[in-house]
């Protein structure tokens, strides 16, 4: 099957928002080329600290970013490009700089997609304990405390290497003690649910509003026996969910975290922890205010590049 790629040339700041626009319009996967991802890579360090590319050998953007969504060719593209352009233009209303904001489309062969992923995606140690490994790599555990997350990015929702995901993986490693119950909101590729099970979390429910993401998560979960009992389903945030969990995690945009906050409070046990990421620098204060407004206590903030993650907990009765 052939595909059509719709590329949005934008700013690094708008990468997550543009990715959301593309997937919400039916993209079955996205590819991100962000100049900031190369900013700290130095020639000669390739492989020594887990870098997945050699900046000397791989062409990349010198500034800004480009987010490419892949769509089946049976979609009417003139209308779709127009719709995406309109939504990108509106990002300014959310105080997000869309950069050039140029939207273009081109045909791409399915075989080319697979080649691209397998060429640039290799095992990567993302935290002290967690290593993300593509399905096609024959990778052996390097340390006794190393836990592997097997992923097949295919045409799905992320490789787990973006700063927002890595912040969430670090946050999970900080808070998990073993045996907790957890809800994963906006699961995407399922990477956070898989990581949680590898770290010792007990019952995990994972939800995403996109059916393609749910299928992707189920596929990746099947590659990781430790996560075999993760429940995955289609749902918008926590609408209609009434579960008392120990942990709720969400790697989504700040604008989507805001309506999730009161839902998370309702679905957490007293003292339960709420882990969120996908927050750009300019939105941190907004998310913090919303958390405190709904009686969350902020325990820790994590940062990677221009992205932030927050670890908070639901205040117990009598807690100041």
UniProtKB/TrEMBL annotation:
Predominant location: cytoplasm
Q: Which Gene Ontology terms describe the biological processes this protein takes part in?
A: methylation
SUPFAM superfamilies from the UniProt entry: S-adenosyl-L-methionine-dependent methyltransferases
Subcellular localization:
Cytoplasm
Q: Which UniProt keywords apply?
A: Cytoplasm, Methyltransferase, Ribonucleoprotein, Ribosomal protein, S-adenosyl-L-methionine, Transferase
Q: What is this protein called?
A: Ribosomal protein L11 methyltransferase
Molecular-function annotations in GO: methyltransferase activity
| Family the UniProt entry places it in | Belongs to the methyltransferase superfamily. PrmA family.
Cellular component (GO) terms are: ribosome
Positions annotated to bind S-adenosyl-L-methionine: 165, 186, 208, 251
Q: Report the function annotation for this chain.
A: Methylates ribosomal protein L11.
What organism is listed for this UniProt entry?
Answer: Limosilactobacillus fastidiosus
Give me the reactions it catalyses.
Answer: L-lysyl-[protein] + 3 S-adenosyl-L-methionine = N(6),N(6),N(6)-trimethyl-L-lysyl-[protein] + 3 S-adenosyl-L-homocysteine + 3 H(+)
Q: What is its EC number?
A: 2.1.1.-
Q: What PANTHER family does this protein map onto?
A: ELECTRON TRANSFER FLAVOPROTEIN BETA SUBUNIT LYSINE METHYLTRANSFERASE
């Amino acid at each position: 099957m052939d595909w059509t790629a719709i590329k949005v040339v934008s700013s690094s700041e708008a990468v997550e928002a543009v990715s959301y626009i593309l997937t919400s319009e039916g993209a079955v996967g996205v590819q991100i080329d962000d100049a900031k991802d190369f900013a700290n890579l130095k020639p000669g360090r390739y492989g020594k600290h887990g870098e997945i590319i050699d900046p000397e050998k791989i062409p990349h953007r010198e500034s800004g970013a480009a987010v490419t969504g892949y769509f089946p060719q049976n979609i009417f593209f003139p209308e779709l490009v127009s719709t995406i352009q309109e939504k990108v233009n509106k990002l300014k209303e959310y105080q997000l700089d869309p950069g050039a904001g140029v939207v273009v489309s081109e045909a791409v062969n399915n075989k080319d997609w697979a080649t691209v992923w397998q060429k640039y995606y290799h095992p990567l140690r993302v935290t002290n304990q967690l290593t993300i490994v593509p399905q096609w790599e024959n990778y052996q555990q390097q340390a006794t405390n190393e836990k592997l997350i097997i992923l097949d990015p295919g045409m799905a929702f992320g490789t787990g290497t973006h700063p927002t995901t890595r912040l969430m993986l670090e946050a999970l490693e900080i808070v998990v003690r073993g045996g907790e119950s957890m809800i994963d909101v906006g699961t995407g590729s399922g990477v956070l649910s898989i990581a949680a099970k590898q770290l010792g979390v007990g019952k995990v429910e994972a939800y995403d509003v996109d059916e393609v993401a749910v299928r992707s998560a189920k596929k990746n979960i099947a590659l990781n026996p430790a996560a075999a009992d993760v429940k995955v389903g289609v749902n918008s945030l926590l609408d209609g969910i009434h579960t008392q969990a120990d942990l709720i995690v969400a790697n989504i945009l700040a604008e989507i975290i805001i309506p999730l906050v009161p839902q998370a409070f309702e679905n957490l046990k007293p003292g339960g922890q709420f882990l969120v990421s996908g927050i750009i620098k300019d939105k941190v204060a907004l998310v913090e205010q919303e958390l405190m407004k709904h009686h969350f206590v902020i325990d820790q903030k994590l940062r990677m590049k221009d992205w932030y993650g927050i670890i908070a907990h639901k205040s117990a009765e009598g807690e100041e």
